[in-house]
Design a protein that fits this description.
The complex is a heterodimer of chains A (about 200) and B (about 375). Chain A is about 25% helix and about 10% strand. Chain A has helices at about 10-15, 15-30, 85-90, 130-135, 160-170, 170-180, 190-200, and strands spanning about 70, 95-100, 120, 140-145, 160. Chain A is elongated, with a radius of gyration of 27 Å. With about 375 residues, chain B is mainly alpha-helical. Chain B contains 14 helices and 2 strands, in the order ααααββαααααααααα. Chain B has helices spanning about 5-10, 15-45, 70-80, 90-105, 130-150, 155-185, 195-200, 210-215, 225-230, 230-245, 255-260, 270-295, 310-335, 345-375; strands at about 115, 120. The radius of gyration of chain B is 22 Å and the shape is globular. The chains are: A alpha+beta (about 200), B mainly alpha (about 375). Chains A and B meet through helix 2 of A and helix 2 of B.
């Protein structure tokens, strides 16, 4: 196949005009202090650049992002988990380990039925699949926004109950993270699941 | 200066030379380091990035716009594993980085980087054949690259080595031819008659091919700079320097996109860093040559800057002027690298042999005709 080449004029073949044009273009970029649209909501010293200054600047985590799984508390600051161990069973990489309260069944408040003695998630094993969040009948565990899980030893990255609860915080955080903007109807996971189940074709 | 020191220096001329060598080395090495930083920062800015901006004072949060980067890079190179692949030709493999780095530093020997500092002329070797020496040394630069390509004993470095041998030899011819008109003007014995006493004293005993003589030729006004008198020669010389230092648009020996990393593919750690430093030292040497030959060396067409220094302060200022001019050319070389794409190999050869060589020859003839007409 013969490729048709554009016939260059004498001036074009000197390359000098295009080289000068190149100087112009690179110069414009060099002095471009205009914000790039990518991180438009961030204000920083390097306002013109596309580079995100990572530890200081962070990208906005989208709603529904599956980050690290944490335990959440209810509005009265109580542990929601009832140690049913469904998440432990469903966890594909076996990252969750729950120590149930045993026969004594100690609880820290009145009216609570049962709660885990210890709840550990090994963040090195976790694959962020979100099954634990799916399966939890109490809406006690949620995949929140954290994506940079770092530590200096393996032991450090096995998060215990206390740490998971403090990182998870109150219910609102999970609530905000999983509810689409502005629509205030709560998480109501099981109501939605029931609806979904009803809408499915029945097997007979 | 104490008595014994003066005596020591007077009795041992080599001591002064050694001091100058160390001095030049102490200035050129940081320049190499910081031109690397400049390269990375400028490239980043041109591409709307930030570049290395973090390394400042160690163990503190002071960043100083990344000026600590060369230290970190150097340390990194030293701490990396110096890996020698099993298939290389060992002796040549070990020699090549040194062979590529030494010529770029030796060029500085004949370059007048300042006028006077005390009673010392600021040039390491005041050779009367300065420019010829320079070309001789610059041609040696190709050996490092070719040797590295050959010694690596693998395809891509070998191709890189072959390309560089052809490229550098081709462009040396154009470069040499481009400089001839410069000396047709500057090596004319008559203009020296009109020089001031200081200049005559300064140039006493030097020949007409001496680089200081070229500087003197360009000292009296801006338009006596040879870049204005010989623009074609300057243009060809500039591009030949790009080709000689393997910079884009002539970086065919390296050409990452085709040859992995070209001649230095098989090198790692400090050996790679030596190639790297050699490349940047060659850039600085090339810029220094351009400054001396075309842009008036250490002079400026301002009172005080156009004659050899009478005081220590002026001497230092002259050196700073020289470094400043080099910095301008370095900036240009870096800028161009991030602007132009690489030439194809046949285009490279065409430009070298079919364009620049005839044009530089024509320039010689043109200059000769003009000189003859004026005479």
């Amino acid at each position: 196949m013969k490729v048709e080449r554009a016939k260059l004029s004498w001036l074009e073949r000197l390359y000098i005009p295009s080289i000068l044009n190149g100087f112009k273009v690179t110069m414009r970029h060099f002095f471009s202090w205009k914000r790039s649209g990518v991180y438009a909501d961030k204000q920083s010293d390097f306002a013109a650049k596309t580079t995100m200054q990572y530890p200081e600047e962070k990208w906005p985590v989208p709603t529904g992002y599956r980050g690290a799984p944490y335990l959440v508390k209810d509005v009265d600051d109580n542990t929601k988990c009832v140690s049913c161990q469904l998440c432990e069973f469903v966890c594909p990489p076996k990252a969750i380990r729950i120590t149930p309260p045993g026969q004594s069944g100690e609880v820290d408040r009145e009216g609570a039925e049962k709660m885990p003695k210890e709840f550990e998630i090994n963040m090195l094993r976790c694959i962020y699949c979100g099954f634990c969040q799916e399966v939890c009948p109490e809406e006690a565990i949620f995949l929140l926004k954290d994506y940079a899980i770092t530590g200096e030893s393996r032991e450090e990255l096995i998060y215990d109950k206390e740490k998971l609860l403090s990182l998870g915080g109150a219910d609102e955080r999970a609530y905000d993270h999983h509810v689409q903007d502005g629509v205030d109807e709560g998480i109501k996971k099981w109501e939605k699941k029931t609806e979904d189940a009803k809408n499915q074709p029945a097997f007979h | 200066m104490p008595e014994f020191l003066t005596e020591l220096l007077n009795n041992h001329a080599w001591l002064m030379v050694a001091i100058k060598v160390l001095g030049v080395f102490a200035v050129v090495m940081p320049m190499v380091a910081y031109s690397v930083v400049a390269e990375r920062r400028i490239s980043a800015f041109i591409q709307d990035r930030v570049g290395p901006s973090r390394v400042g004072v160690p163990w503190t949060k002071i960043r100083l716009l990344g000026v600590g980067q060369p230290l970190a890079d150097g340390l990194e190179s030293f701490l990396k594993e110096d890996f020698t692949p099993g298939h290389v030709k060992r002796v040549f493999y070990w020699m090549a980085p040194a062979v590529s780095m030494i010529p770029s530093f030796v060029v500085f020997a004949v370059i007048p980087f300042g006028s006077m500092l005390g009673m010392q002329k600021m040039v390491i070797a005041d050779l009367n054949v300065g420019i010829l020496f320079t070309f001789g040394i610059v041609s040696l630069g190709v050996y490092g690259v070719v040797l590295a390509g050959y010694a690596s004993n693998s395809k891509y470095p070998f191709l890189g080595g072959i390309r560089s041998s052809a490229q550098m030899i081709s462009y040396e011819i154009a470069m040499g031819m481009a400089v001839v008109p410069v000396f047709m003007l500057a090596a004319d014995p008559t203009w020296r008659e009109g020089l001031t006493v200081e200049w005559k004293e300064y140039l006493d005993g030097t020949g007409l091919l001496n680089l200081s003589s070229v500087v003197a030729y360009q000292s009296d006004s801006l338009f006596s700079w040879l870049v204005f008198k010989q623009p074609i020669a300057f243009f060809i010389f500039l591009i030949a320097i790009f080709a000689e230092t393997n910079r884009l648009p002539f970086d065919l020996p390296e050409s990452e996109t085709e040859l992995v990393a070209g001649y230095n593919t098989e090198y790692s750690s400090m050996r790679f860093a030596l190639f790297f430093m050699g490349e940047y030292a060659a850039m600085i040497a090339g810029s220094a040559l351009m400054v001396v030959l075309f842009c008036g060396g250490w002079t400026l067409p301002i009172e005080g800057f156009n004659t050899p220094a009478q005081s220590l302060g002026m001497g230092v200022l002259h050196i700073l002027v020289f470094i400043g001019k080099i910095a301008v050319f370095l900036g240009l070389m870096i800028w161009v690298r991030w602007m132009l794409p690489r030439f194809r190999y046949d285009q490279l050869m065409n430009i070298g042999w079919k364009r620049f060589l005839p044009v530089s020859l024509a320039n010689i003839i043109l200059t000769a005709i003009v000189l003859w007409a004026i005479a």
